[in-house]
Amino acid sequence: MMIGGMTSGGDTAVLPARAAPVAPLAAAGDAGRQSVVIQSGGLALNDVVRQTSASVASRVMALSPIINEAARVADVDSALLMAVIDVESGGNPQAVSPKGATGLMQLMPDTGARHGASDLFDPRQNVAAGARYLKALMRQFGGLPLALAAYNAGEGAVQKYGGQIPPYAETLNYVPKVIARYRWYRDAASFPATASVQAVPNGVHDRFLLVGSGGVD
Predict the structure, then answer these.
(1) HSE, side-chain direction, 13 A CA sphere, residue 108
(2) Which is the most buried residue in 24, 49, 90, 91, by most CB within 10 A?
(3) Nearest 10 degrees: CA dihedral of 188, 190, 191, 193?
């Protein structure tokens, strides 16, 4: 999420900061909780996807109980929440962006508080608040693409450009990326629970597969 300021310069305008690899998750209940600040790097987008897509998808899908609960309460598709979490934080509840967006769904503190979260590092609170915020944006803007644009760039940016996706490089990359992930997680829901996530070979960009015990249909 780039609310509070745009990325600048070269590749960083195309590659969102939260698309960079994240550090391993801290164990649940760690007393000395540490934040992970995610910064943009020099990797090309396809390299990042190739390196992280399988592990990120597995990590996000492991959060299904929390995500499903938040989706049910907010009346949004759990696959959509998974997609946002995938793109925003890579499934890392300790992630913090340089602008201060925090946790799984990378909420700014005031946004989280407005939607009921007092601790954005708490996965349950973060996802619940993020789900409510996303639902509110969908109501406000009447559709998913504009809601995602507002989630990334802020409501004011969408309004500034007359109800269109703002012409920011990060936002123009973010919206189709989340939608693509959304389709993937939605399709993944039809696979057996025993399915595993595997990366595809190099040269095939921005894709990863679920492979069940009986193979892919």
Answers:
(1) 13
(2) 90
(3) 100
Does a structural domain hold residue 18?
yes
Q: Which of 207, 157, 201 lies closest to 177 in space, CA to CA?
A: 207
Q: What's this model's pTM, rounded to 2 decimal places? A: 0.69
Measured between alpha carbons, how far is residue 16 from residues 52, 75, 83, 138, 186 in Å? 14, 28, 15, 22, 23
Given pLDDT bands bounded at 50, 70 and 90, which one contains residue 164? very high
State the residue range of the domain holding 90.
10-24+33-211
**48: pLDDT strictly greater than 70:** no
pLDDT digit string, tens, across residues 179-196:
999 999 999 887 644 344
Q: Are 50 and 70 in contact (CB under 8 A)?
A: no
Instruction: Specify if 73 maps to a domain.
Output: yes
- The reply to whether 185 falls in a domain is yes
Contact 76, 135 (CB under 8 A): yes
88 is catalytic: yes
Residue in 141, 155, 148 with CA at minimum distance from that of residue 81? 148
In a domain, 5, yes or no: no
